[in-house]
């Protein structure tokens, strides 16, 4: 039990067996007081997100909501591409083009007819970066491989992209294995590692607290936003704040869950949200969609594809009703 | 706030930031009076549509409801073909044959088993017009490309078609780039451009009002019905009337939304509705399906495939109950 | 308005415009009296079907419910194969094997994983009859073509099949074009023509009454059950009875609706129901599924694939509750 | 009618026509008394399962819930692979890799994007065992064939697997035809034969009682758990207990039902449940999912794919609520 807010210790995996189920007890502190309190630790809850997702204007058209590009998939992991694609479509993007190796063509067009498929000339792995002019944000990672040709695509992307990036999965592992690539990372990129992927980027953490220190340092050094995925997903920012998520459940610990998050974040970035707003909204909505899905499937029965069905209602809840 | 009916100015994008949310206030004008008032501007609402969609007769069979042909798709945009196909099926057509390049075969037959697939001999683009005898209406555009071979297909279509046409997307862009083709347009065709596509056909508009003038001129000159897509989609007719739609929401500003409209309109034309009735019903039903879908998905989460699920209930609402 | 039962004239298409909506008025005739009245005209309603569909026994296994074979599809019409397959699966068959040309392989296995696919060596048309030993009933027709090779398959089927047959679509057109094949028809086969297909088999009808005479003669001569599809689908039997259906709606006048019926009938025959019981139950359940579907989609929006969702609940209603 | 518990005789197929519908009548025996009574016959009901499925811990991640490998499918039976895959995903596994012949690649990735596909180099049959290091449990059987190359894969699997195995369908038939393979069976494997498959393993049974004796002997000799599928599926254990299931219905007597069970059991084993707990939970949940599905589809209309939708809610019911 804790006054007003949880202690940081409650949110860390290593304390799981000592903490159990916790509750906060209001003691009458005003929200305003809390907001003024000097802290670099925040909870991502509905109050924090108020006003960050504007309502769509009456006269918006496809172009208003951006054109995302997703670089996804390799032989055997086209499913990850499908999940990221469907999640991106469900997150309000105006247009979506998906780049997969040729092996993914029929699968993508059957599973996500709303997306355009710009197939790579190589059959099994990404091998060429397409022309980037049309796009307002680019996501790369779900289902790709660490093939040499894919590393080249990533390097070209980092060198030439003029729009926001979201990087996940083997795009992160390629960065971890090639620190020279990491140096090319454009500012305000969003990275979404799980703890092992993060340690390949940052070096080993001695414990959960040290991992948070490493997260702060990494975000500062690379001027990026890093989503450290876990039970209480933690967003690190270039300026040193840490934001801990309050939504989600252990049913989401299942293959493809992260691919959905990548699609979601890329869509929000493509709609011209700031990296901070996109990351906060995306992390929260992803967990909340999982909570809504689990009401239907149970935690055990939850699969990643279920999440995409509930992204829409979740983003609707978060939309500021009175904005134009 | 406006008496009885909105002002035209409320419906135009350039006034968006000054107008905000508007309401009409009844002041006791009789519907009959309004009907007699001389105006060439109309709202597309349920009252206007009463009686335009007859109920199906008890003894109707597949042949009664027409056989539509859709010319759709190119490599990477077979999804547009899927969406137009599914929408056409949901709009009451008796039979549907879909022509796509060969790359679309498996995708179409998996996604829309109710449609027959008459695959083009070319792999990636439309290259040959099929024999047109069986069909009662033909739609062309969603997902096609501006390839030379496709231009030839369009030209052959315009020269030989004896049944109603619906043209969209790159079929319109090909018309815009080849004014000689535009001269071949059969009377009573329906065109469905968004504003940029329209300006490729009509020349640049100075402002929203000028665009409406251009719309009137274009429809008159080419004896066609033009659906200028937008927040208040506007139908222009050969005789100079403009009809503004009252359904729809900004969640529909998403890739594939227009493909759905093309399928819907082609189905209505195949069922022997007049161009005017088909256009009015199709525009309204498309927006209304979007409004019903958004109740489930939210506006942000809406994708084009959602629209097809709600076309049926919408057309049911519009069906005249007492017709034979 | 009619006493107790409709007049035959109410059920015939040519009287449609004179009859309109009709109702029956009970005048106290006992059901028993009606049953004893000498008539060869019957209505297919719930009362007629009571007791014809036994409840599944507790210890039944896959083998108890038969193994159906469906011969389906050709290039461009694999969708018809999908619809017949899904309907057959939903109608209680223990096992289902589907024979399509090779072009249908991926489509079928993606759309109906519960069915086994025994692909024909030819790419586009059926060309070889598989070994028939495992099967308890066989359906042929939806989506096939009139190719010479397919005619040979049909002929081999008629010559060698030892189990009940259901024939539809181009299987019927092949019979109509090759009267020598018709002579091979095994007794108790079920044929499911629409009026045009029927006239290719029976010769032209002068009017609706004459068509019913031709139906009686045809069923008698070929010792078969013929389902003459229409608003009031009429089943003719070898012994001269005519059964008129009371379920269904004009939304079912859409491509693929008949394919669903073929799957349904083949499944019931595979489960060892008599030709009469299978035909009566299948006709009624098909129409009833359409009525249930139309409550969700509206009549205009109904597509054939919707029917399969409601076959199960319909057959459940018809199951005799107290049988073992 | 029986006091407290059914007699064994009620549960055997050969008595079906004499037993009919039975009920138990409580006579006040305490549950504790029953638990202490010396018996090697048990009913699988909710009480027996209490505490066997722990709730997911807050900080679990994908790795916590295991990585399953499924060896599935052959040309024409990729549908069986799809069903086992979808069921495995719905049963809480952290990650799933599926090995099918190459013919199954597109089908699997379209139907189950959450699974990774590790395609066999052979087109039509399994021919090579992949490297087994990543996996925490392995299932083999649904949709495979008795091809020589597949027999070799099975033999390699039995010789090298260090993790729990689940074997079904033609994997069992290969064991039955090759008793030398049976001798390689790792202890605590789960086998899921139907009665005919079982007799190929154990020799012929004279009657239902003898079959249960053979089941006890077989499980003892091979130190395995054998799920003898039927109306009252019976689990035999290495130590001689027999557990009879109380869920399920005859609508589940349909192709693919067993494939779903294999996926379910493999997922539970991959999550580090004991063979006994996995078998008991899997058998019960499979039948219960069928009971829930039949409420929507009716027994006749039930198909195997329906079961997967209800596995999640069923496992949720069985989850121990107060575990960490």
TrEMBL record, chains A, B, C, D:
In the N-terminal section; belongs to the NnrE/AIBP family. It is an enzyme of class 4 (lyase). GO terms for biological process: metabolite repair; nicotinamide nucleotide metabolic process. AMP binds at residues 229-233, 258. Gene3D superfamilies: 3.40.1190.20. The keyword Lyase applies. Its EC number is 4.2.1.136. InterPro entries: Carbohydrate_kinase_pred_CS (IPR017953), CARKD (IPR000631), Ribokinase-like (IPR029056), YjeF_N_dom (IPR004443). Pfam families: Carb_kinase (PF01256). Catalyzes the dehydration of the S-form of NAD(P)HX at the expense of ADP, which is converted to AMP. Together with NAD(P)HX epimerase, which catalyzes the epimerization of the S- and R-forms, the enzyme allows the repair of both epimers of NAD(P)HX, a damaged form of NAD(P)H that is a result of enzymatic or heat-dependent hydration. Signal peptide: none annotated. Residues 45-318 form the YjeF C-terminal domain. It comes from the Bacteria. Its cofactor is K(+); Mg(2+). It comes from Hymenobacter cellulosilyticus. It catalyses: (6S)-NADHX + ADP = AMP + phosphate + NADH + H(+); (6S)-NADPHX + ADP = AMP + phosphate + NADPH + H(+). Residues 1-35 form the YjeF N-terminal domain. Keywords: ATP-binding, Lyase, NAD, NADP, Nucleotide-binding. Homotetramer. This is ADP-dependent (S)-NAD(P)H-hydrate dehydratase. (6S)-NADPHX binds at residues 80, 143, 194, 259. One of its GO terms (molecular function) is ATP binding.
